[in-house]
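Interim report, section 4.2 (structural modelling).
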Amino acid sequence: MADERDPQISQRYRELGTEEPPPALDRAILAAARRATSRHRWYSSLAAAAVLLFAVAIVVQIERQPPDQVPMSTPSAPVVEQATPQEREAPAATPAKPVPYRRARPDVQFAPEPPARTESAPSAAPAPTPDANVAAPAAGAAADAERKRADEMRAAPQLQRSRVMPRAAHLEEEPPERWLERIIELRRAGRHEEADKQLADFRQHNPSYKVPEAALRAEK
Amino acid sequence: MEGAPDEELMLAYKAGNAGAFETLYTRHRARLYRFVLRAVKARAVAEELFQEIWMRVIEARARYAPQARFTTWLYTIAHNHLVDHWRKRGLTLVSLDGEELPAAGDPDPADQAQAREALARFAAALDALPALQREAFLLHEESGLSVAEIAAATGSNEEAAKSRLRYAMAKLKAAINDG
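Predicted structure of the assembly:
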């Protein structure tokens, strides 16, 4: 029964007085408590800002990564190789085959006038940016918009390089003879406008190469 | 948050609500102050310890978890500060010299009112208690802790807490009855 109080003792104890801490002490303690919480808020704000900054950095990084990561996951060479064997196996008269290749070309238009062959070998990796469009035409608009945003985030030199490299990669993989064959196929399919663009592009990169009549037909 | 339990207030303060601490402080300040004051018997020391205890509460808020009553936690901190204080004083736990409580007062020969004498005897008996017995009594009487809570706050077992409390009450009862 130790928890029970003795009323006599309790009464006498109460008679000893009801001292309280001096007001100055109260104020000092309460002020310290408030300071501690304001510090807490400051630290919280700092932590929140740090987290936000970190999140933004991650988002920026993610936006930058896709164009660089695409080559890893869907390298350009396989995509081109997928198309190329199909075209090789297909009869020359098959009209639809060059289309994927054509879709890749618009990106090449951005390239200034680089000496493509000198860049070709080491720059094969970034090539897939246009080829990714070829592989997934259905996602074209959204993917293009996303890729453009990502590209805009990049520095200008990177932008230039990424747009030049596809052509370099293409040239590395596409011998002039094969390129001309494609142009001829376009002619046979009646797609002369595309063939003309291809031919102009071809001439830019192979100025001294003799173009066969079959590829030139529409020009005449 | 005026009517909120202590534990809820402390959690609110932990979350940054300074008003919750103010409520908590208002609720416990007087009892804790008297507990410390009667434990050390010197007002200046009591005020210093009282402030240190509350500062400790403020500092420890981030680690606070309501595993027991807030009161038990608060008086555990108070007990630890008292132990440190007694150790610094070379464990002179039953010192009767120095500043004495004005409320307990020295018996004034000119004022021989019986009630005052009885109160003085009681105060003297309380002062004369061994520190641990006095602490157990104050935790029980002033702070309203149960034997189990006293044991928890002082880091002892219930049997020891009960024994200290029983001895303290017996001596105080004897002081009252002596009159």
